[in-house]
Amino acid sequence: MKEHDAEARLARAMEDAAPNRLDELLEVREEARRQEKIVDISAPPRKKRRRWQNFAAAMAAALVLVIGGGSFFGWRYANAPDSLVDIDVNPSVQLTVSRNEKVLSCEALNADGTEIIDDMDLRGSPLNVAVNALIGSMVQHGYIDELKNSVLITVANEDAAKAKALQESLMADISGLLAGESLDAAVMGQTITTRDQTLASQAETYGISAGKATLIQRILDTDPTLTFESLAGLSVNDLNLLLQSKQADTSGMTVTGQASDKAYIGLEKAREIALAQIPGATLKEIDFDYDDGMVYEAELLKDGYEYDLEIDALTGAVVKWEYEEDDHWSGTHERGPATGPESSGSGTQTTPSPQPSQSQQQTTLITEQEAKNLVLAQVPGATIVEFERDTDDGRAIYKGEAVLDGREYEFEIDASTSAFLKWDADDVDDGWQGGSSTSAGQTALDEEGARALVLARIPGATIVEFERDSDDGRTIYKGEAVLDGWEYDFEIDAASGEFIKWEADNR
């Protein structure tokens, strides 16, 4: 360090440490100079000795100030804010840390974080002591256990080497602490050396740490079909599972251990369920994913068709089923595609066919004419004015509209089970001048007869709601029935016994 730099730093230190004492010292020295102008000729010649003593005293006083000021300056330097440390599990906590690794402040970034901190005052604590206290509290409150074993540590500091060293030290401490709790932890560590304004805004918007926002962005960079909003509410353990499943870029990160999937059915069970849906199929791939919940996404191949399935990671239910022809298939289709999920065989009910009386093993679709015959059986003499084949949530359906005597009927039929998924009857328009096959208000069907019509459509169902009502002066029976995870909303014309509404949906 150059001499003038040292002098400048010393002056700043002295100014910060004791500016008033420094002013006094300068005043004493000025008074000493004034006294030098008065010469007492009667006194012995000892002038030089007194000047030396005064100078020595002044230097001693200055030295005291330098030493004292330097000590104060060193204290201020060591205790200035230096790093930010984010600890994320589901609780998120941020620590502001000094250069000598003492905690200056501890802030909860979400409600779970507030619960973890509780009444702990960590200010002034060594960083490793504070982190151990927070991790211990997370274990005690059940946020870290064998089902959720992931912890994310993020250290923000402009000095990359210092940030990395601090991150690795904290990761080692946490791994050791959780090992002492008989937990096989998955600890992730990362550093931030420059502020990313976009991520900072996202973190503020969703009330999460900058570290968790950075982790989410790694996943989105790999799979842009996901959204920041959908992932922000996930725990760090679920994010870790997605990070591993999608093989996201982890450069600059340190990842130890394996994220626990014990809260879910597991990859092997998901494989078993997927293959049970399409016996003889080849499982091309299966991955952990997110789609309005944690799912296993499977892709299978059989007989020239490609099937995409989503299996609920918690229950094992098949929540999505889609298929299309395999572009790489060069053979001929010996049969139609499998068109609906089977039972998982694990005691967990997967998405059922809406009409259980039809065989779920059916792999061929009913023809257009067969679907039309089902409609005409409901309203003999009707004219089908609209008709098309379509898909709904990966399921092949026929849908359309029929008219008879001034009324129109909208319908949807499952092409694999022949079940009516929708049946809605209404007047064609207010200008209809023709007659009606029944009179308004006429009642030819009693409640027992209406119930029997419903159960004839879905044998074994339970009618959970049922009432008699009036609709435009017409007496109707309406209600709801349930069977095997499906619910059916119905309305029946009391005069004709005609279903004017029939809708089936997953509960």
What does this structure look like?
- This protein is α+β, with helices and mostly antiparallel strands and 507 residues long.
- The chain folds into four domains: 3-78; 81-256, no CATH class; 264-351, Nuclear Transport Factor 2, Chain: A (Roll), CATH 3.10.450.40; 368-506, Nuclear Transport Factor 2, Chain: A, CATH 3.10.450.
- Helix content is 35%, strand content 28%.
- It has 13 helices and 18 strands.
- The protein has helices spanning 3-17, 19-36, 47-78, 111-117, 127-140, 160-180, 197-206, 210-222, 228-232, 236-245, 267-277, 368-378, 447-457; strands at 81-88, 92-98, 103-108, 150-156, 186-192, 254-256, 282-290, 294-302, 305-312, 318-325, 383-392, 395-404, 407-414, 420-427, 462-471, 474-483, 486-493, 499-506.
- The protein has an eight-stranded antiparallel sheet, with helices on one face. A six-stranded mixed sheet has the order 3-2-1-4-5-6, sandwiched between helices.
- Helix 6 links the parallel strand 4 (150-156) and strand 5 (186-192).
- It is elongated, with a radius of gyration of 39 Å.
- Mean pLDDT is 78; it is low at 6-29, 36-49, 343-363 and 430-443.
Roughly what is the average pLDDT, rounded to an integer?
Answer: 78
Low-pLDDT windows of residues? 6-29, 36-49, 343-363, 430-443
Tally of discrete structural domains: 4
Can you tell me the overall shape? Answer: elongated
Helicity range: 25-40%
The strand count comes to: 18
**Gap from first CA to last CA:** 76 Å
The radius of gyration is 39 Å
Kindly name the structural category.
alpha+beta
